[in-house]
User: Fold these one by one.
Assistant:
Number 1:
Amino acid sequence: MPSKQLVFSAESVTCGQSDKLCDLIVDTILDRVLAEDRFARVDLQAMAAPGMVLVAGELTTNTYIDITGTTREVLAGCGYNNPENPFNARSVAVLHILQEQSTEVALAVDKRGAGNQGVVIGYATNEAQAAGLDSNLMPVPIHLAHQLTKRLCDIRMQGKIAGLHSDGQVHVTFLYENNVPVRLLNATVSAQHSPTVKETEFREAVMHHVLKPALKGLGKIDTKKAELLVNHSGPFTSGGPNADIGVSGRTMVMDLYGMAVPSGGMTLCGKDPTKTDRAATYMARHVAKCVVAAKLADRCEVRLAYLFGREKPVSVQLNTFGTGKLESDKALADAIMKVFDLTTPGIVEHLNLRRVKYAPICCFGHLGHEGSPWEDTAPAAALLTAAKGKKGGRK
């Protein structure tokens, strides 16, 4: 029988890319609010444009946070500290338009209801193991894409490439056979740089310090014929909010799983844990990862749907893509319901979300970071026990 071939791509951006910069601003503000007031209600958005940053949204708290100062710190930390740059931490105007959470929403959350409505999707896969590498049960394309952008940021902060600036983007494409990545087809790095650098030398430096070292960790995946590109369309001297308006919440697909599974469409950054967007997205990943860690499936997609003000999800759907070890995915879903509390308050308590620092996981994907509570697979043992109570097995 011929093998089934598919092509999957993924992309990632550096912390200095316009949209991700806005994500980092609102999550840093969120962290500082929750550090002083764990029960604060926060739902913030940010926009970055030439010469200005706007922070807007709902904020109900008993503490005071210097939003202007925090924003400037984030900009400086991401490399926007050159006074010759029109968009820099010292001279940029920081505006904020804030109001308290509405009484109707607050009352629903106080009654243990979901802070908003929507559908979230969680996913885990052991595809990397078959390819001879460890991706923490994340899809390989998004895993490599984030590795490349993180390396690009680290190299900039270490000063190893002269003229490397803050904005950067990565795109990778893999060939899959029978649901396993077997060949890297393309890896592209677009890195902002000073107008004074020599383009050929700059490309060679990025290739040497960023691209080639990351490819060495791809295990059995064939990289010999991969197309490797750096700034393939020409110079990249104008970047960040000077070139592209940034808005928080626009990097949702790369924040999750890339093209591996659909996105629920709900944004994460700037939101406290009572918001289903954030809490349920992390829980869906947690559940899916425990399923795969318990060897109850090779791949697992979890879909949770919530209504505003309702405590429990109105829908829990599971898809193991034919790799499940029980007689049906419904049987596995029943076991999940026995082990995990999927109410919003239950999720917040189980994952201890009021204690999480969100800014450190804002960049390079919200998922797959070791140490995040939703990456813990300790409940896999209890899930396996519950699943054993189900009769039969998949034939």
Number 2:
Amino acid sequence: MTGNREVITGNDFKRMIAGAYSAFLLEYENINALNADSLMDEKAGTHILRTIGAAAMSLRDLQADSIGGVSKRVGSAAVLGAHGNAGVLISQILRGIAKGLAGKYDASSSVFGKSFQYGILYAQRAVNDEVERPLIITAKAVAKGAYNAVRANLPIAEILTEAIKAGGIALSQAEKKNGFVDAGAKALMVFLQGCRAGLDGNYVSPVLLFSSGFKKSHDVPNPKFDIVYTYAVSFSLVKCRASISDLEKMLNPLGKVIVVKSLDDRITVYLHTDCPGLVVGQAVDWGQIEDIKIQNLAMPHDLKNVDKTIMDIAILTVADDEKTAQSLEQLGAIAVITQDKVSGPAVGDLINLIHGDIAKNYIILSNNKSSSLVMAQVKRLLKNNIEILYTNNVEEQIKALKAFDVNETLKVNLQNMHEAI
């Protein structure tokens, strides 16, 4: 790290995330092979890799120098890009770290060390278990190690080193007690070791790993597929010089959930994007721009327009393949097809779909326990518009769908569907 080792900058934080992603590219399959019962997540390594991949991709064109801005971008992208239970927990740690660094141009060792306390707190809130999971136990040890290093006035690199040592001791103790290495706890250590390597620049760039042919010899998820669209941007155009079809063409490369409508003497635009500044910068050339609103979708928020929807209640079901999706859709559901039988959709995939003005309220039927925290994170972000019904297989999804009555209220339908399974 260049400059004063007592201060960490936004560029330092960028390297830490790149280092963490590089570490997971090399270790995620080993983590997949470990015991993940505490997470109920059969592919914990893959899910964390994809979550950190979403965070890393959010920095690809970021010009911000402040550590507060960089960490906020990382935390928000991780929240929306989270896959599986393991990914959600890591995303909450990153979100908590961003909370601790909010508003900072750079961070002292004390501020940086304290930000880890926020990370652990946010992860604990995500699970809210009576019995602590090994990942949380290890994370607490990491936070304590960082706290002691801060009190000793150590440089930031050494704070990370001491935190890793403390976490390693906790991991070894848990292994002796349980007779196995927990996947979640091990993943946390790989993440921290990657951050430490990234801080000093001692890591292989993910770009080099992919360009070297690494991807061809491993079943590595392409991070381009994990790009998330963190911001909802809306505005009006007066005296617009472009047609609606041309506006849609110009907006398509910039985001998803694109809605362009003509209303009286103006055109209204709504879309989800990861580059709101670029969208607004282009829009000023299309006409007089008014009523600009930018909302972070990784924060709790309301649906954009619940009064102009197609139906009162829609049911979203997670399906493993096209055949299953068709069976569920014949019963009135909107099916979300997963890329494989374990990963399931990312948080942002469901957020984008729900923002499509389909219904005022949604019931989501999950299809396995590996994504239970993903569903809970969607509900947290969309407040009162979402209810989750945890089903374990297609048969239970079908039973629940058959119990749904379009003429009943959300509360009654939830009760009937729950009783049916």
